[in-house]
Fold GTP-binding protein.
Amino acid sequence: MPITNDIVLRPRFKMNLNHDHSTVLKVFEDTKATNKMYKIVRVDDHVFIRLPTHEQQFWSPQLHLEINEVGANNSILHGLFGPNPTVWTMFMFLHFVVAGLFIVFGIWTYSNWSLDTSCHIQLGVTVMMVVLWFVLYLAGRHGRSRGKAEMHRLYDFMNTTLRSNGLD
């Protein structure tokens, strides 16, 4: 599974399948009942594959599959790797807070600079927000690299499930 862009924190992929989407969804639904190694949840045309709870860590990924019908016997499987939605929401919230503080302190810095008053503290906090954004980005990259082996396990499980049911 090549990741074409090193910057992306949530890798994506797409597969064309020569079966209708209800057959593909049924395969994952049936696998859910027989499989004990992975947690599989299906909601409409979406399938979520996770590691068992006792193996999950903070940055453990999940595989989100969306199976869309293209024709009578064709479907497209869209895959997205990402952390637990709670972790992702917290991560995005922190990015939002850093961006908001950057804007507020940037405006405050510019206002003080325009008025020829001291703006060293505001400028320092503005620069610190840029540094904090890089730290958050590097933390996300670190989390993705720690979860890479688990991403491969999930991807291999998905491929094995499809192949074993003749859907490759």
Observations:
- The helical segments are 21-34, 85-114, 120-146, 148-164.
- Residues 12-84+153-162 form a domain with the TATA-Binding Protein fold (CATH 3.30.310.80).
